[in-house]
Specification:
The complex is a heterodimer of chains A (248) and B (54). By secondary structure, chain A is mostly helical. Chain A contains nine helices and no strands. In chain A, helix 3 runs antiparallel to helix 4 and helix 3 packs parallel to helix 8. Helix content of chain B is 80%, strand content 0%. Classes of the chains: A mainly alpha (248), B mainly alpha (54).
Chain lengths: 248, 54
């Protein structure tokens, strides 16, 4: 029984198996992601009613919140993959962690830029050294540090381990970002979706946001699967299965 | 249409925000596909001329 339960884990650890699985799964994430993102952006820009305080300006929420969600969710995925790689010495887990970093970093930039573009008209400033904004900026540096550390080692195993340690230690920043608006007096508003109890937004405003959150999450899965394949090909350069797979 | 583009006076903030986010989405697709294409080409080159590790 215990054996059966763990076979999927062992199979995922096999590079050829994961390579093939990633190739097969990608379209199942990519196409729903495309439909949800296009539909969600249209609904957010056109169908959702204007906010009674912020007017049309609140529509930045539909790009800002999904980007911020990605910045955190991808980091958690990266941290978990890094921990699995470190604890079970699983090479493909390090490949997954390495593939997460540029995706997460890019959406962290999007979250910071869209937040800045929202802050200017609503708070009157592009940037404030506020707990939420500062901890999100630290998240970007964690991603960049992770990528820089990987690039700094010639030996892949040492790069994997050093970067994994950084990713795991950096996980403390994730709850800090999330709770920063509650723990400290922040310019940034408190959570209105990811909170206990009911969201504080009307359904017509909330629905496009939920569609976009799902769409972005599927998008991450699709992009990650493509990147993981590239990462596996590079790491397994000497393996015979690559020749068998590519010739097939 | 122009009212839509004006976004109640917030056009200068909303459209750049959407542009940046869509740009990040597109870049992620381009980067990911590019890295897979490069990895595949490198693997095929190695298969064509074994012994050279490039």
């Amino acid at each position: 029984m215990a054996n059966m339960r763990w076979t999927w884990f062992h199979r995922l650890a096999s590079p050829p198996y994961l390579y093939g699985l990633a190739a097969r799964l990608t379209p199942w994430f990519a196409w729903p992601a495309a439909l949800l993102i296009l539909g969600g952006l249209y609904a957010g820009l056109v169908l959702a009613p204007p906010d009674y305080q912020q007017g049309e300006g609140f529509r930045i929420i539909y790009v800002h919140v999904p980007s911020a969600w990605m910045s955190l969710m991808v980091y958690v995925a990266m941290g978990v993959a890094a921990a699995v790689g470190l604890i079970w010495r699983m090479k493909v887990a390090h490949a997954v962690a390495a593939s997460c970093a540029p995706i997460g970093a890019s959406f962290t930039v999007a979250a910071l830029v869209t937040g800045s573009l929202w802050g200017k008209p609503m708070w009157g400033t592009w940037w404030e050294w506020d707990p939420r904004l500062t901890s999100e900026l630290i998240l970007l540096f964690l991603y960049l540090g992770f990528m820089g550390l990987r690039a700094g080692f010639d030996d892949l195993q040492r790069a994997d381990r050093a970067a994994a340690l950084l990713a795991i230690v950096g996980m403390v920043n994730v709850p800090i970002i999330h709770y920063s608006v509650i723990w400290w007096n922040s310019l940034h508003q408190a959570p209105s979706v990811m909170r206990f109890g009911k969201p504080t937004m009307p359904a017509a405003m909330l629905a496009p946001l939920l569609v976009l959150l799902l769409g972005f999450t599927l998008f991450f899965a699709a992009v990650l699967l493509v990147r993981v394949r590239a990462e596996i090909l590079q790491r397994e350069r000497a393996a015979r299965w690559i020749g068998e797979t590519l010739r097939a | 249409m122009s009212a839509f583009l004006d976004m109640g006076g917030y056009a200068a903030f909303i459209w750049p925000a959407y542009l940046v986010t869509v740009g990040v989405l597109v870049l992620n697709i381009v980067w990911a596909r590019g890295s897979l294409t490069r990895a595949l080409e490198a693997a095929r080159r190695r298969l064509a001329s074994p012994g050279e590790d490039s």
